[in-house]
Structures are given as C-alpha cells and as structure tokens.
# Entry
Amino acid sequence: MTFAWYGHLKEKGLPLWKAILISWGIAFFEYLLMVPANRAGFASGYNGFQLKITQEVITLIVFSFFAVWYLKEPFQAKYLISFLFIIGAVYFAFKK
# Structure
C-alpha cells in the first residue's frame, strides 16, 4: 500500500488520473491479503482496535524504509521519538 499511495510522488509529470489507476491496481493486491488477514486475526481473538493498531505499526515501519530508500528523505530523530510513542499505544492497546 505504501508504494500505491506514495510511489507516484516522484513522478511529477504523471497525470493524476493515471496515478490513481496505477495506485488502485497496486492496492487491489494488498487488499487481497489484508482482508483474509484481518478475518483470521479477528477469529483468533484480536479486536478491531488491535488489528488497526498493528496495521499502522507495520505501515510505519515499511514507510520509513520506503521514504529513506525510494523518496530519498532524511530520517530524523523526531520521527523515531514519534514512533516510540506509537509503540506505547501498542502496549496499551494489547494490555490485558
């Protein structure tokens, strides 16, 4: 999903309608994986909040590598601190 949503940012000459169609094409395959994964997680006892928080953490990790590697953006300490707060949210979401 990261590439579908942000990959077109480097292609400034790409018309918006093409970026949308390409992004939807890429995202379709992720949805083919995410929908069954969420169902399996829910059936295993995770609630919707826990599934979403888990998805966000995975997305942030993937996006961090993508932003540095593909978009060539610098990773700053403030992002690391922000991620640590999100890890705190994960702790509280899964705390019994």
Observations:
- Residues 42 and 88 are 22 Å apart (CA to CA).
- The two ends are 31 Å apart (CA to CA).
- The chain is about 75% helix and 0% strand.
